[in-house]
């Protein structure tokens, strides 16, 4: 998972970064709300951890701006020294999903991040995913189209699963490469494009398959990719 952390305290950022990395997730750190909002125009994240008191835009203003811009499903955890009831209510009213009072306790932070992730992104490691006419089997690491298995290479399956799991979301190029290839070594941009092109062909994306939905993989210039559902063509009824 890819988590953005917004706070102007370097010590707090290092603590959260170390904790999140211990959980096996990637972190991207921001010190101002303006920087985070600019990044959100070209990047995608799975969860945000936001401080209240910041230089420039406050955490409340940042969360409102994100929700107003359409980020209604992105889990947001507020972390603040403010602890009065009215402050917590204000954070939730602005669009926060959870609230923690500083100083943070590491185990509690882990538990809250895990809970938010579990609610927003159910674990699919041991279940089949049905996206008629496609079906993904994470155990067999196989994609089926109309119950027919499609031969995919390792990274192709990883990319397909991540795209279907996040169907409808615009995923940045960095987000996709980190999720599929990891961030140990830089992945050339053309590698992602090549795999996306292969998936379009092998999965016959963009085509109508019987009564199922039409899934289209769109490249958004300068941003990334989105797997989206299109309306199936209407059946034409011939006159009697």
What this model shows, in words?
38% of the residues lie in helices and 23% in strands. The chain is an alpha/beta fold and 240 residues long. It has a five-stranded parallel sheet, with helices on both faces. Strands 6-7-8-9 form a four-stranded antiparallel sheet, with helices on one face. Strand 4, helix 4 and strand 5 form a beta-alpha-beta unit. Helix 2 runs parallel beside helix 3 (59-68). The longest helix is centred in the middle third of the chain and has 15 residues, at 106-120.
Give the topology, please.
Blueprint: E1 2-6, H1 10-22, E2 26-30, H2 33-40, E3 47-51, H3 59-68, E4 76-80, H4 85-94, E5 98-101, H5 106-120, E6 129-131, E7 134-137, E8 142-145, E9 148-150, H6 154-165, E10 170-172, H7 173-181, H8 189-202, E11 214-220, E12 224-230
Parallel strand pairs: 1-2, 1-3, 3-4, 4-5
Antiparallel strand pairs: 6-7, 7-8, 8-9, 10-12, 11-12
Helix pairs in contact: 2-3, 6-7, 6-8
Largest sheet: 5 strands, parallel
How many individual helices? 8
Per the principal axes of the C-alpha atoms, what is the gross shape? elongated
Radius of gyration: 20 Å
Which segments are poorly predicted (pLDDT under 50) over 5 or more consecutive residues?
none
The arrangement of helices and strands along the chain is: EHEHEHEHEHEEEEHEHHEE
Helix fraction, binned, reads: 25-40%
What structural class do the secondary elements suggest? alpha/beta
Our estimate of the beta-strand percent is 15-25%
Number of strands: 12
């Amino acid at each position: 998972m890819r988590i953005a952390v917004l706070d102007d305290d370097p010590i707090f950022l290092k603590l959260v970064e170390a904790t999140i990395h211990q959980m096996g997730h990637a972190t991207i750190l921001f010190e101002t709300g303006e920087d985070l909002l600019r990044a959100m125009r070209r990047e995608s994240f799975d969860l945000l951890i936001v401080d209240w008191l910041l230089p420039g835009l406050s955490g409340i203003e940042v969360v409102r701006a994100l929700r107003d811009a359409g980020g209604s499903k992105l889990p947001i955890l507020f972390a603040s020294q403010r602890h009065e009831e009215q402050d917590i209510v204000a954070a939730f009213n602005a669009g926060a999903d959870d609230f923690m009072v500083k100083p943070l306790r590491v185990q509690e932070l882990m538990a809250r991040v895990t809970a938010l992730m579990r609610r927003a992104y159910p674990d699919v490691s041991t279940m089949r995913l049905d996206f008629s006419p496609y079906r993904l089997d994470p155990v067999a690491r196989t994609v089926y189209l109309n119950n027919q298995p499609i031969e995919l290479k390792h990274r192709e399956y990883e990319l397909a699963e991540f795209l279907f799991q996040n169907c409808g979301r615009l995923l940045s190029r960095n987000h996709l490469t980190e999720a599929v290839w990891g961030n140990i070594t830089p992945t050339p941009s053309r590698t992602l494009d090549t795999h996306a092109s292969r998936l379009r062909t092998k999965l016959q994306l963009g085509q109508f398959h019987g009564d199922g939905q039409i899934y289209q993989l769109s490249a958004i210039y300068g941003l990334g990719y989105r797997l989206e559902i299109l309306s199936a063509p209407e059946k034409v009824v011939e006159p009697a």
